[in-house]
Queue: 2 jobs
Job 1
Amino acid sequence: MSATTQTTFTKKPSRPGVSLVTTPPKQDSSFNDNECLKAPPTPICAVVNDQIRLNPTHAYPDFDFASYVRHRSYTLSTIDFGRSMGASFLDDGVHDILAGLIEELPDSVSKAPSHEIRDAREKGLGMFATSFIPPRGFIFDEHPVILAPYLLGVSVPLAEMYTELFESLPKSAFAYATSLATSHQDDVRPKSASAPPSLPPPSFYEDIMQTNSVAIDLLVPTNTPYHELTTHRALFLLLSRCNHSCDPNAVWSWDSSTLMLTLTALRPIAPGEEITISYISLSGNHAAQRAQLKALCGFDCTCEECTLPSYVAASTGSVYADKPVEITRAVTGAHCSKRDDNTSGCDLPTFEEWYQDSTLPDTILINAHKNALYRIEQERPASSYLGVSGRSPRSTPLSTTAQLMDHHVEAIAMCYGALGDVTNFRKWIVIAKESRTQHKDKVVFSGWLSNPSSFPLWGKRCPTIV
Ligand SMILES: C[S@@+](CC[C@H](N)C(=O)[O-])C[C@H]1O[C@@H](n2cnc3c(N)ncnc32)[C@H](O)[C@@H]1O
């Protein structure tokens, strides 16, 4: 393996401010250490060879890790994209291609943001829409702040490489990158029987990368005997604030010729709605997906889909109907309403009283109606369980039950509408719409779904006085 070198990628002089500058690693860096010349231990080679050869995304069926490591030579660089800065640690061949690419990059301008970063409760921070985003609408685009190989020769310690990379970022990018979420896990790297028993815990910078980076492809010369993998790791500052959802409303794409990631809407996103992506492939069953998220990303998903009460999941025909009934915990112990058949015994305000009275808790009616739904669901014989929309027209008790459920579902949707809670309003309107049989009713509900603020009582509820 040859030593690492340092350069700067520089865009053509006619376009000042966009460049790739290679920087020398620190004096005490181990990149040029004699260790670098050592071949990786055979068991490690065997594991890595299997992982790369058998993974079709790498398209490298004759990959040989020992030769790969021996033939690597990396360059550490800072990248000035003009509107943002980054740092890269790349195989020399890839680095050279990138240098050429960056010279030719068209000038890109930042567009007015349609989003903000704010608290997303138990998920930490999240990204929220600040204006309406149509389906397939542009949300943002950005260049990476860190670019690194997907697979590094064992001779270059990951922790050292990431330290070099992060610490070569300009101050503002460094400050933002180091404020990103970490998962504080001991080790989320995939384990295998033949892997060394205990890998050291990830460094702070590695943790940031493990928690936030995504896999992207770079243009790699594949006509060399021990060429670099096309897949690389990239860190993006905006994308890193997007939380996962099992029913995401946005998706990112990567353009290796412009080195730009773009986030677009999968469906209409209303102002105030959280912008979410999926961290994994959503083709499997929900339990398997949750397990995969836990194994790969280290968290228990608390997205809207994963916290839906079971009757909601059943009524939407969602793949998440396999969730255990205990998720209805959210509605147990809630208040009930004397105005509803199934909610006698408690003194609750009407909807009109509630939305005009700021001294009442925001959730008082929502909880009451959810509680009522929960009790109806519990009281129905198991054999009659048909879900909210799957009722039998010939059975009087069932259809009465269904009407009651519709009433509660619509009341919950109205409350969320009055609170201006886009995500929950949509969730409950979807269910309410399903049980309406009249076409004209469905049209009205569809209108509210695509533009929640057209709901007549949208945001009418006065804020609670605490
Ligand atoms: C890429 S970051 C997303 C932004 C992050 N919430 C923040 O505060 O910067 C990934 C981390 O966010 C949290 N997270 C993202 N989606 C989540 C979800 N659906 N349920 C629970 N936690 C989630 C997890 O802690 C995860 O490790």
Job 2
Amino acid sequence: MDSLREREDHQELNIGIDGNLNIDNLVDDKVKFNFDIEKDSNGTVLGREEQLGDKDMAPMAGNSIHRSSSRPQLDLSGAAIQGNFEEKDPTILLPNQSDDISHLALDIGGSLIKLVYFSRHENHPFNDRRRKIIKARLGIINFNRRSFPILGGRLHFVKFETSKINECLDFIYSKQLHRGGMDSRSWQSEGPNTENTVIKATGGGAYKFADLFKERLGISIEKEDEMNCLVSGANFLLKAIRHEAFTHMEGRKEFVQIDSNDLFPYLLVNIGSGVSIIKVDGDGVFERVSGTNVGGGTYWGLGKLLTKCKSFDELLELSQRGDNRTIDMLVGDIYGGMDYSKIGLSASTIASSFGKTISENKEIEDYRPEDISLSLLRMISYNIGQISYLNALRFGLKRIFFGGFFIRGHAYTMDTISFAVHFWSKGQAQAMFLRHEGFLGALGAFLSYEKHGLDDLMVHQFVERFPMGAPYIGGNVHGPPLGDLNEKISWMEKFVLKGTEITAPVPMLPPGTTGLGGFEVPSSKGDSLRPDASKLNVGVLHLVPSLEVFPLLADPKIYEPNTIDLSDHGELEYWFTVLSEHMSDLVDKAVASEGGTDDAKRRGDAFARAFSAHLARLMEEPAAYGKLGLANLLELREECLREFHFHDAYRSIKQRENEASLAVLPDLLMELDGMNEESRLLTLIEGVLAANIFDWGSRACVDLYHKGTIIEIYRMSRDKMQRPWRVDDFDIFKERMFGSAEKKPHKYKRALLFVDNSGADVVLGMLPLARELLRRGTEVVLVANSLPALNDVTAMELPEIVAEAAKHCDILRGAAEAGGLLVDAMINIQDSPRESSLSVPLMVVENGCGSPCIDLRQVSSELAAAAKDADLVVLEGMGRALHTNFNAKFKCDALKLAMVKNQRLAAKLINGNIYDCVCRFEPAS
Ligand SMILES: CC(C)(COP(=O)(O)O)[C@@H](O)C(=O)NCCC(=O)O
Ligand SMILES: [Mn+2]
């Protein structure tokens, strides 16, 4: 079979096929891999199990024929041009390529093994033809200017206890990570050879277990320097991940925005079994300035001896219920309950860790394990905090980043370290923590593969997501992501049976306060911290190399997409309730969209459980997945739906509404054409606002839809349009368009219209507005979602809607032809991109997201390209113009249009009522 073909050893990335094809020419959208589907001799697609056979356990290495080298390479064997050879950028199939980026790296520490692996994104369906037209139209030569291709993919983070190394080996084997691809389907069941495969690893275990890896998996370990890896991992995270670093004081977590140009120097304290203290001055420029042998291993080791705990997590969990005053000697114990205020020590300050046990005539059994664990934790955390501070002082450093698995996202540990740093530095130095704290070394090892291509990635190109399974790593579930859909569903079912209590929302405790020398009662522990909380910290990092910052943002550095701050507990609770109440309706729609089968019902059920679990988790710790805004919650819902293979829950509703609206469009256009320019503009804006009422994400609107037909509701909404609207800048916009006694009329060159919902919203609202702009000589770019979200129209669906509308309107037809939106015109446009029509073009671009909101730091390359010549941005709808971007400032004129379909938001944002409207016009800033 094809996929049995050997890979070439030592094949460099830039070796060409027959000397002509240089890999530099392969950009992401031109390389196609076909390893997703394996067929048997009858052409039947094999299931995962059939392909894997009984291979989930790693066998002893045997004879095999597959070879690969340590370098991440493209396997060019069997490469062939697909399709038309005459095409300028033909697709090249690499049938034997499994993944073009290095895929697995390890950090094998004394206590834990950390794994980082990369998996390629599944191809998501996109309109290739539309993309080609847009590329030609916008003059995009190359979406990706790298010297070699980076495909989108995911970085996964998994850990195992070193003492259970066999579980780790089984995991690697079951996912076939040692073979150059995470998807076993690309390999034959006969057991390909891994003889020459080399996997990068760091940590002492890279030496200690090298033979075991060879024996069990047939792979060699290439050792990478541990300090080097820690530093490059930390630098990478601090530069590439937006919400990576945070402070943690008195139970309050706050993300710190790190300016990658102002990162160095800093102190990196890695708390593993032991502690390394490293002064970092740049990429690859560092010095290990100190360390201590009292670290995570000490806590665990002593804790194990003293409490009989079986695991680190159990020990940490015990500390949650501990009271260290029964064990530690406090200042007050020495001073008869008084403070030693002369030297600034309160009575509650620990004078001597474990000191109280000297004078008491007790045996170990007489102390509570909980108290012992807490005393130990405080002793070690304070000590590390103090040594770190002294080193920061020694080198004049203000920022200390703490990493390593000792911390485990444990609030109390972080508070204790922060307190120590704050206390000793008198507030001059700041302790910061990293969300991927435990994976610095493994990430560094991953980055040490040559040509991994991740060096110059920007912050916005990594998007953190939480596919199901990711939040529940640990124990027997090694998580992210659970292999296939079935696994995910059954895991959700099992999870709910076992742990229903954690799916229920848990109220968050208000942060406690502590006095000087505080922590008499740990402020961050208590009933609200679930035992598994420490495992729920990092998700899968999605690498989307084609995302860019929207070029028209006035100042991307201060841009904040979210309008509503969910760190306000009242807000979080409200939106949590809204989303929970919407759940059953959404599940019904999702299940119906998949034919209402038993399988769809089971998936619907699993989705509801998964999303509820995420919500519960976020209620408990809003910053668990990074800084939380309403847009993230709404996106999480869409992501969860996709996880359970609901790709378009509102498909039929959208279709129905499109058809009904297209049927009345000709009448509307006729009515508009009978008006003078000024009344027409007003009617058009009114039309956009009125049609925005068709929003299946709003509870109030959905209730309304039971009361009439689409057209009745649209009419009712239009009839209620009374000016002044709650935010009403229409006159300023009108003056900008038509001029006044003092000002000349303005003709926009190119307008970007961020469209929202299907049906009336786009057909009767935004398309007529687009038509008016086209009529006035403005190029129009309709910007729509890349993936479905609620009833939002997508960039895939829009060309068809425009084509339908164009049947009734010459302006739209001419512009759509010029923009390549009409099928016949698409063929012409490839030959002569610019001159095919006299009309200004109407184009469609995708925005790069699949959510009702938009974060303009992460838009598609085609939108970024379209923005180049644009001088007007129109944002439409509640998600795009209110929940997000209400306060966004642009380099060009901006018009924000929305109907507010939620009472609380109306009251909060515009001091108004549900169904009030916003027409905000902001000249270029
Ligand atoms: C999800 C939405 C932002 C979509 O609104 P749109 O952008 O389509 O105008 C909106 O429906 C919403 O905020 N819904 C939740 C609140 C509610 O049910 O009232
Ligand atoms: Mn919408």
